[in-house]
Design goal:
globular; alpha/beta; two-stranded antiparallel sheet; 2 domains
Length: 194
């Protein structure tokens, strides 16, 4: 999406919102000034600044705290951010792409996701069904990751069509780690000698 857009010449910056503790997410997204907290020994640019002119991908946005959601909403509405410990507002021009494995409508009803942020982000919604519901895609994914890994390691691409699927009989939930496991299976198969 980024590479085929008018922002392709700009950066693409990814943030896994679930992997960043709630007390650090603001600093990660908006940056901080030197001395703004104990371990802030130097100024740090946040992800919004790093993505300026390009795309900011907020993965697992459904896991972001309500406080951080409010600040992201403000940044999207005003195209401005303020670093933690800073006073100056900085202009930013980013396209935000967000992903989550949560049902955000349900999270809104539970009070754990802001409805106004949802509407700001939900301009175009792409619903990717769980891999469990599209098992016919598994051979194509395994082939893709096998080709990727074989190319990466400089080894001939293996023909695994006669082999049983390494994922046969497993319960797939359609989340990225499961797709990465397909890559791991392809990596394992790519290293075999037969």
């Amino acid at each position: 999406m980024h590479e085929l857009s008018s922002r392709a010449s700009g950066p693409i910056v990814e943030v896994n919102c679930a992997a960043i503790p709630s007390e650090l997410i603001e600093s990660e997204l908006f940056g901080h000034e030197k001395g703004s907290f104990t371990s802030a020994h130097k100024q740090k640019l946040g992800k919004f600044e790093q993505a300026n002119g390009g795309t900011l991908f907020l993965d697992e946005i459904g896991d972001m705290s309500l406080s951080a959601q409010a600040k992201v909403l403000r940044a999207l509405q005003e195209n401005r951010i303020t670093r933690v410990g800073g006073e100056k507002e900085l202009p930013v021009n980013v396209r935000v792409v967000a992903a989550t494995n949560k049902d955000l409508r349900r999270e809104i009803n539970l009070g754990t996701f802001r409805e106004d942020l949802y509407h700001r982000l939900a301009v175009i919604i792409i619903d990717v069904p769980a891999l469990n519901n599209r098992r016919e895609d598994i051979p194509m994914l395994v082939e893709h990751f096998l080709n990727l890994v074989c190319t990466e390691y400089g080894i001939p691409v293996k023909d695994i069509s006669a082999r049983p699927s390494p994922l046969a009989g497993t319960e797939l939930d359609g989340q990225h780690p499961r797709v990465a496991q397909c890559g791991g299976a392809a990596r394992h198969l790519g290293r075999t000698n037969d």
